[in-house]
Automatic annotation (TrEMBL):
InterPro entries for the chain: NusB-like_sf, NusB_fam, NusB_RsmB_TIM44
Domain NusB/RsmB/TIM44 as annotated: residue spans: 6-130
Organism of derivation: Phycicoccus avicenniae
Top-level division of the source organism's lineage: Bacteria
Family affiliation: Belongs to the NusB family.
A UniProt-annotated Pfam family: NusB
UniProt keywords, alphabetically: RNA-binding, Transcription, Transcription antitermination, Transcription regulation
Cellular component GO terms, alphabetical: cytosol
Gene name linked to the record: nusB
GO BP: DNA-templated transcription termination; transcription antitermination
Alphabetized Gene3D superfamilies for the sequence: NusB-like (1.10.940.10)
Coiled-coil residues: none
Name the UniProt record assigns to this protein: Transcription antitermination protein NusB
PANTHER family noted in UniProt: ANTITERMINATION NUSB DOMAIN-CONTAINING PROTEIN, N UTILIZATION SUBSTANCE PROTEIN B-RELATED
Length: 137
């Protein structure tokens, strides 16, 4: 697994864990940076993704709610919420990552970690966000 893919997976793990525990993802990140639970330090990309999603969470959630036809955030599986939030952050706010690469990475994560229907849903929603990105101010 490539280093960037591993960093994305660790960001996903942190967002998912934070939601399950009912804690702020940025606080959990700070905790893990201060007291790592593995021998491998968190990658800078992991931290950037978690902080980015945390800082823009309400904006990201509003866009997800607007463009996820027929699916409320609460109705989505928890892992899909985390994948879509991270994917939306990369698609919308990471100029160094091509949109198609970000979408592909997060669809791959959904394929590996979620339901059979999740990859198609993640792909459609992230592609729609990429499509409307120029209209967002």
């Amino acid at each position: 697994m490539a280093a960037r893919t591993k960093a994305r997976k660790r960001a996903l793990d942190l967002l998912f864990e934070a939601e399950q525990r009912g804690v702020d993802a940025a606080d959990l990140l700070r905790e893990r940076l201060a007291k790592p639970v593995t021998e491998h330090p968190l990658a800078e990309l992991t931290a950037d993704l978690v902080v980015g999603v945390s800082e823009r969470r309400s904006e990201i959630d509003e866009l997800i709610t607007t463009y996820s036809q027929g699916w409320s955030l609460q109705r989505m599986p928890a892992v899909d919420r985390a994948i879509i939030r991270l994917g939306a952050f990369e698609v919308l706010y990471s100029p160094d990552v091509p949109e198609n690469v970000a979408i592909s990475e997060w669809v791959s994560m959904a394929t590996e970690l979620s339901t059979d229907d999740s990859p198609r849903f993640v792909n459609g929603l992230l592609a729609r966000l990429a499509e409307v990105k120029p209209t967002l101010a």
